[in-house]
């Protein structure tokens, strides 16, 4: 495989079940192969995407002192600012050469509210993008259910209070020419949850690992979202779907991306799905709540948050 498939998902909103099933089949094939695919026809306006990139640039252009007041190490719960060289997505490598800002799903009654920069209108712009891409992620879950021969709404009550995170990401170009050996924009890793929807700014850097160990360069795909299966959905599908390692190389020029991680409700039980376990075989992994599983994964990445619930 030399490239990821591009799938038009507009028909997922069709009243015709045959059309919905056809799109679900295409998505399912990609999920079984490399676990990566790109989607068009998602319904998120190009102007909305462009405005969110502008909001990201505005935030990261602030002085470090202003960003650090919102640091995730201070506020916890996986929300706020992540400084350069703070994370190590590849635990065996040097810290990643990126900075980030996290916005979580919250009803502010059961989970702490987000923290926001003092930039007029910024919260509303970013929240609007969050809501728009969240809706796309819900449609993808309906497609997963169809492909796995489950009721189309199987996941609906398992992602209505999701541990979802929107990440604005910035890879400064200053590191492109002098990055230490073994250091990357984002180290080789798999994502933790169910599915990730990524918007990129057209600057190259994302690579996906093939089954033979080689790497696929993901090209610029204006207006599309690059999607990939995470470890939690792979576990839920009893490894029918594949969570594939990927990385971001130090960019040759400044790079921004926007990642939306749609992960299950905290109390969702991640247990091998009906039809995904061959007759006579045991599930490959025991049941676990999504909260416990994701907490373990976040703790590994955010070791400086010892004692705080990073993923809640």
From TrEMBL:
Q: Which InterPro entries match?
A: DIOX_N (IPR026992), IPNS-like_FE2OG_OXY (IPR044861), IPNS-like_sf (IPR027443), Oxoglu/Fe-dep_dioxygenase_dom (IPR005123)
The Gene Ontology terms for molecular function here are:
metal ion binding; oxidoreductase activity
Which Pfam families does the record match to this protein? 2OG-FeII_Oxy, DIOX_N
The residue ranges of the Fe2OG dioxygenase domain are 158-264
The record's PROSITE patterns line, in alphabetical order, gives: FE2OG_OXY (PS51471)
Record keywords = Iron, Metal-binding, Oxidoreductase
**Similarity comment:** Belongs to the iron/ascorbate-dependent oxidoreductase family.
Protein name per the record: Fe2OG dioxygenase domain-containing protein
């Amino acid at each position: 495989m030399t490239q990821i498939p591009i799938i038009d998902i507009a028909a997922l909103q069709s009243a015709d079940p045959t059309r919905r099933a056809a799109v679900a089949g295409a998505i399912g094939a990609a999920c079984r192969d490399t676990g990566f695919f790109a989607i068009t026809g998602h319904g998120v306006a190009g102007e909305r995407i462009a405005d969110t990139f502008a909001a990201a640039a505005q935030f990261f252009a602030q002085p470090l002192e202003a960003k650090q007041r919102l640091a995730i190490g201070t506020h916890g719960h996986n929300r706020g600012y992540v400084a350069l060289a703070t994370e190590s997505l590849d635990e065996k490598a040097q810290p990643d050469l990126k900075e980030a800002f996290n916005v979580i799903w919250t009803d502010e009654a059961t989970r702490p509210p987000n923290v926001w920069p003092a930039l007029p209108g910024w919260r509303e712009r970013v929240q609007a993008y969050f809501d728009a891409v969240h809706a796309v992620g819900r449609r993808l879950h309906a497609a997963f259910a169809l492909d796995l021969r489950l009721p189309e709404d199987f996941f609906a009550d398992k992602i209505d209070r999701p541990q979802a995170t929107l990440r604005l990401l910035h890879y400064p170009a200053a590191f492109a020419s002098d990055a230490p050996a073994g250091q990357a924009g984002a180290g080789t890793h798999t994502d933790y949850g169910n599915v990730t929807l990524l918007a990129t700014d057209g600057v190259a850097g994302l690579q996906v690992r093939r089954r033979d160990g080689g790497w696929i360069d993901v090209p610029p795909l204006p207006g599309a979202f690059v999607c990939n299966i995470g470890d939690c959905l792979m576990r839920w599908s009893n490894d029918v779907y594949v969570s594939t390692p990927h990385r971001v190389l130090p960019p040759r020029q400044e790079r921004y991306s926007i990642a939306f991680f749609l992960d299950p409700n905290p109390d969702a039980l991640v247990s091998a799905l009906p039809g995904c376990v061959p007759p006579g075989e045991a599930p490959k992994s025991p049941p676990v709540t999504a909260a416990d599983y994701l907490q373990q994964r976040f703790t590994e990445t955010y070791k400086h948050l010892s004692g705080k619930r990073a993923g809640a």
